[in-house]
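Appendix B. Chain record.
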Amino acid sequence: MAHINLLPWREERRQERQQQFYLALVAAFIFAALILFLVVSFANGLIDEQNQRNSFLETEIAKVDKKIKEIKDLEAQRARLLARMQVIQDLQESRPKIVKVFDSLPRLVPDGLHLEQVTRKGNLVSFNGVAQSNARVSVFMQEVDANDEYGESRLQVIKRTSSRDDAIRKFTVEVNEANPDAEDGE
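Structure tokens predicted for this chain:
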């Protein structure tokens, strides 16, 4: 029988297959690296785009925050101006009020009663004076209560200066001025 050596043919085929396998392995590795590079590049592009959007939003938010601060400053300034205007308006409304109060005093004070001091703190008017009797103080309080310029009167103090019948009485009567709103309704 003839001896045919088939080993070199098989050995060549095995080397060829092994070379094709390594070539396919390298091609698959290159293809996978290319795909990975594309995916990473795409993801980095998305991240960069999102970072640009975030920075744009941050700058816009900073601008809006600045405008909001300016608006708050303007609102505070507006509130201060409105408060000043209200004070001025209150002063303007109360200016003729004191004239009316002093104009009404001669009609309110009965004979035998003398006012020594009239003080005003806010809307509270305090009358300090002397009277010949308690009845005259009572008449004065009734006159004050009947006057539209004043609210209800309150007797704070009444003292006799001596124990004799003709002794004078020192008194203090407090009364609130009538509300300007009540005058507007008339």
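Further analysis of this model is presented in Appendix C.
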